[in-house]
Design brief:
The chain contains eleven helices and no strands. The chain is an all-alpha fold.
């Protein structure tokens, strides 16, 4: 009687039922939160999820589509902007704080979009990239239009968005550099809160009319 061949991990009907696409996506999202995107390979995701890389390709097609699904999940789970006064200075402060909270809660998402998905041929990927950034730029433009120059200086909303993304993204993606600039043992969450307050003060002082 011939010996039955061993089934590779993650392959076969039982393995597919045991480890579904949600588990793979959750694993990939967790890795993107803790590692630079370039290090999040299919083999690493497969190893952490306990499946064969072929199963990941079966579920998602390729690495780019899986990373796109990661971005969509991170965007869907990002904290919502808080509510409060409709006065333009208060609204702009909430926008700035939301940018900080979004970047800190979706660690490496901007780096993922730039390094891994910017040159993607997928129209869906390009649409998501544009939609993600255009909403923020439009929000700043609408706010300045509504203010009409009463309390806010006239600034390019695109440049404002790019500046905020750059400031908060560097703080998150370059944390090894930041850690070397502060006393050992400094809590990064506490430092992040202080940096957020600094950026709010810096940008509001630059945006408010004198």
């Amino acid at each position: 009687m011939a010996k039955s061949r061993k089934t590779k991990r993650g392959q076969g009907r039982h393995a597919q039922n045991a480890v579904g696409p949600d588990t793979v996506l959750e694993t990939a999202t967790s890795l993107v939160q803790s590692l630079p995107p370039a290090r999040v390979t299919l083999s690493l995701i497969a190893r952490e999820a306990g499946v064969d890389p072929a199963l990941i390709r079966y579920y998602f097609g390729d690495r780019t589509k899986l990373l796109l699904a990661v971005v969509e999940r991170m965007l869907a789970e990002a904290p919502a902007e808080s509510q409060g006064s409709n006065e333009p200075p208060a609204v702009i402060e909430r926008h700035i704080r939301h940018a900080a909270h979004f970047t800190r809660s979706t660690k490496h998402v901007h780096r993922l979009m730039v390094d891994e998905l910017a040159d993607a041929k997928s129209a869906q990927t390009r649409h998501l990239q544009g939609q993600m950034n255009q909403r923020a730029v439009q929000a700043y433009a609408d706010l300045m239009r509504r203010d009409g120059g009463k309390t806010l200086r006239k600034l390019d909303p695109l440049f404002l968005h790019l500046a905020l993304v750059g400031v908060f993204d560097f703080f998150v993606s370059a944390q090894p550099v930041v850690r070397n600039l502060v006393p050992q043992g400094t809590p990064m969450d506490t430092l992040g809160d202080a940096f957020e307050n600094f950026v709010v003060d810096l940008f509001l002082n630059g945006l408010l009319k004198r």
